[in-house]
Sequence to fold (449 residues):
Amino acid sequence: MYNQGAVEGAANTELGSRVFVYEVVGLRQGEETDQTSYPIRKSGSVFIRVPYNRMNQEMRRITRLGGTIVSIQPVTALQQVNGKASLGNATSEVSELATSGETANSEGNGKATPVNADDSEAKGFAKPPAEEQLKNKDKKGNTMTQAKAKKDHGDVPVNTYRPNAPFIGKVISNEPLVKEGGIGIVQHLKFDISAGDLKYIEGQSIGIIPPGLDKNGKPEKLRLYSIASTRHGDDVDDKTVSLCVRQLEYKHPETGETVYGVCSTHLCFLEPGADVKITGPVGKEMLLPQDTDTNVIMLATGTGIAPMRAYLWRQFKDAERAANPEYEFKGFSWLIFGVPTTPNLLYKEELEEIQQKYPNNFRLTGAISREQKNPQGGRMYIQDRVAEHADELWQLIKNEKTHTYICGLRGMEEGIDAALTTAAAKEGVTWSDYQKELKKAHRWHVETY
Fold:
């Protein structure tokens, strides 16, 4: 349902450009959205740039696709407030990830951008102030969460199961990942998918539809979670899919009340044998290159480790290597992982085992914010580790066989860019321009939320 008064007020504004921006939530993923050009932001909102003469047409389109218009503002008004219009372009490519239709309780990859800084820190890096979040965009105003899928991934399965007909899987196991003394609740869930046709590959996501009704009395919408297992599943039998889920928890900014994520809480406390509604898979942006002689840089915070785990298991686990004789990884992978405490180092033993067994092919670097100090004496966040190794990372990134993957909360991107800007400048290279070329070459992969 949209606010007609807001539409009319925006349409009659005298603020110059006569181009307006619709903030929309709840656009569903389906055959129709596959044909449109909506720039979807994983935090739950879609920002659509609309010329004045197409406003009514776009409203009808949004309504047809199940969306709700939250606000309408003239582009110039946003430029005056933020210094630029931090908005997606109406011709931008569509993300293949459906939005959850919520804001505070949405869980792209399991959670939304937190309300308070402490919750941000629990994921391993400092959160920028709220007024800075709209500035974390590229020069065209697009968020750095999506790029065009590489053409050689055209046969990747997408949307085998849709929200109106989800697959009903069963919980096989639900194991805690945070050790004693750690912060928050993070679970590794394994689902039985043997009764269906759900196939996926590393780097994709699935949707989970929690039971019950939302605050408007409508069925809960799906939330997306990055898959934490390889295409063969944790048991290497093609019968399971696994997730790494953190229970979303934050303080309400006005009441101070503790709020828990609807879907993440549902998942974290599921018992083995319980049913779970699954959609997808979706996503082609975070897929590994098919070439096995590559360098893979992985920058992750918190449950952003999920796709990285899938990559590393495919590259190095003995059972996986045996199941994939056509894929024998010969390159180098480097994981820089940000968490608040040592007990929050998810999958710590498995990662250390890979490092010990393949010291020339895998490197693990931790950024433990509450236990380690950066050179300035502050807490060690992932951007500090990137700055520490910026020259070495820059040399790797210049290699045409290097792919970089970033997964976690959006606040991490700015610090990473700052560090690499400094390293590139030493050679007279402008990082922002170089990064654009990396994206065009499909060597810079980002999934932040």
User: Anything to note?
Assistant: The longest strand covers residues 167-176. The domain at 153-282 is CATH 2.40.30.10 (Elongation Factor Tu (Ef-tu); domain 3).
